[in-house]
Design goal:
heterodimer, A: 112 residues, alpha+beta, Alpha-Beta Plaits, B: 435 residues, mainly alpha, Ammonium transporter fold, two-stranded antiparallel sheet, globular
Chain lengths: 112, 435
């Protein structure tokens, strides 16, 4: 099993969700996060006082799938979240040791 | 029958004495001291509108500008100072400002509103309504001062500062401006709705108070952005709406002077809001919502002394000029001197008030569309206006120093660094604004 963690632009969430559904991903976890990479931060000005914030709001999508599906998931997320501009985000793929469905106690890929 | 006749007679006599202690514009209307129900209905409405400016208007405006950890503290300080001002107003405030005996600087008598009955008249309205109307002015002025000291002043310190400040600063200056025999009243200073009494007074006191109190921890290095400009915008709207009571109500009747104040309160403010955003744009920033709100307040402050003393176009110019001056005061002057006037009570109310008070002497001229007489001498009036401004600055500075040091001796003035870090909502009130 693989954990695919994608940091994307907030307005790309719907596209990514649809793309994941189309390849058969049945569930995901989404969180609002902040961070920075190559994209510059934003400058806020209140009555002349300038604050530059280097943390940019992003969405983190986490999906766990079986090993065979993982390359396909990465591919569709990469395409759906791509706007061609700096700050589109990153995708990380991690190995998952175990998965348990809490309700039934099923483990492994059947729990996904 | 005889008793009620006597009472009426006494009330009429009282009304007559009071009429002489009224502003000029009220005196004209008060030739015959009889109750005018139209005037009364408008003045009761105006009084409630001014109250709306404080709660929830100013509370939301200031609250939105603070950090979320100090939201309740800011709003509670405004609420409690307002409530305290009301109680004090009845006990000795009204007597000190508008009592039957007095000199140039203060009055006395009528403590606990002694002698006032439902039949007592002040001009063409019941004296109780006049008492209430003026009470809301005292309450909003002390509330405005809080703008510079939020996020670090102890609640207890404010509760000590407020009554002393009202007694030695606000009541005497209200007397000087609005009571016959008062210093500025006799000088002939033009102040329609309280530009000196309320705004210069509150603004200058706020500046002195924030300097004595010291900066917030981390200012100006640490970012302290407003936590909700949405609420600030809501508060701004309520302030603008309520200000019609403040300005048009200061005509003390439902008359033409109130009508002039009303249109000026619309257009000066509109011009000021646009001017602020325009200057932001010219300064290389974006036209912002906080800029809009700040412009609105700057315009309202500036038009306050000129509300019934300017033509509508004069008001537009005055509002726009005040807005530009205030923009530089808050974005350039404040960083240059490094004081932490947290919500710009001085930068907008103090500076805007001064521009308004001096500008009133200009826009009053009939040649500029103002309501002044044909023989109006601008130069002489300007000197009078400036003298009134300077006297107010000196008086409120000295009074604020005294009130702050008494509060410091009794309460320590400032919250501990731990409370300041954690926020005054938890540290001073044991609550959180948002859960």
């Amino acid at each position: 099993m693989k954990l695919i963690m994608a940091i994307i632009k907030p307005f790309k969430l719907d596209d990514v969700r649809e793309a994941l559904s189309s390849v058969g991903v049945a569930g995901m976890t989404v969180s609002e996060v902040k961070g920075f990479g190559r994209q510059k931060g934003q400058t806020e000005i209140y009555r002349g006082a300038e604050y530059s914030t280097n943390m940019v709001p992003k969405i983190k999508v986490e999906v766990v799938c079986d090993d065979d599906l993982a390359p396909r998931v990465v591919e569709v997320v990469q395409q759906a979240a791509n706007s061609g501009a700096i700050g589109d985000g990153k995708i990380f793929v991690l190995d998952v040791g175990q998965a348990v469905r809490i309700r039934t106690g099923e483990t492994g890929e059947t729990a996904l | 029958m005889t008793i009620s006749k006597k009472l009426c007679g006494a009330a009429a006599a009282l009304g007559a004495t009071l009429a002489t202690s009224m502003p000029v514009w009220a005196q004209e209307a008060a030739a015959e001291p009889t109750l005018n129900t139209g005037d009364n209905a408008w003045m009761m409405t105006s009084t409630i509108l001014v109250f709306l400016m404080i709660l929830p208007g100013l509370a939301l405006f200031y609250g939105g500008l603070t950090r979320s950890k100090n939201m309740l503290s800011t709003m509670t300080q405004i609420g409690a100072a307002t409530a305290l001002a009301m109680v004090i107003w009845v006990i000795w405030g009204y007597g000190t400002a508008f009592g039957p005996e007095g000199n140039k600087f203060m009055a006395w008598g009528k403590y606990f509103l002694a002698g006032i009955t439902p039949d007592s008249l002040s001009g063409t309205i019941p004296e109780y309504v006049f008492v209430c109307f003026q009470m809301t002015f005292a309450a909003i002025t002390i509330s405005l001062v809080i703008g510079s000291v939020v996020e670090r002043m102890k609640f207890a310190a404010l509760m000590v500062f407020a009554p002393i400040w009202l007694t030695i600063v606000y009541f005497p200056i209200a007397h000087m401006v609005w009571a016959e025999g008062g210093l500025f009243f006799d000088m002939g200073a033009l102040d329609f709705a309280g530009g000196t009494v309320v705004h210069i007074n509150a603004g200058v006191s706020a500046l002195i108070a924030c300097i004595l109190l010291g900066k917030r921890m981390g200012y100006p290095k640490e970012p302290m952005p407003p936590h909700s400009l949405t609420l600030t915008m809501v508060g701004t709207g309520l302030l603008w709406v309520g200000w019609f009571g403040f300005n048009a109500g200061s005509a003390l009747g439902a008359n033409g002077s109130a009508a002039l104040a009303m249109i000026n309160t619309f257009v000066a403010t509109a011009a000021a809001a646009l001017a602020w955003m325009l200057v932001e744009k010219l300064a290389g920033h974006k036209p912002s919502s906080l800029g809009f709100c700040s412009g609105v307040i700057a315009g309202l402050v500036a038009i306050t002394p000129a509300a019934g003393n300017s033509g509508p176009f004069g008001a537009i110019v005055l509002g726009a000029v005040a807005s530009v001056v205030c923009f530089f005061a808050v974005s350039k002057l404040k960083p240059m001197f490094g004081y932490d006037d947290s919500l710009d009570a001085f930068g907008i109310h103090g500076i805007g008030g001064m521009v308004g008070a001096i500008g009133t002497g200009i826009v009053y001229a009939p040649s500029l569309g103002g309501p002044g007489a044909a023989d109006y001498v601008m130069g002489g009036q300007l000197v009078t206006q400036i003298l009134a401004v300077v006297t107010t600055i000196i008086w409120s500075s000295i009074g604020t120093v005294i009130a702050i040091y008494v509060a410091k001796a009794l309460t320590g003035l400032r919250v501990s660094p731990e409370v300041e870090q954690e926020g005054l909502d938890l540290g001073e009130h044991g609550e959180r604004a948002y859960n």
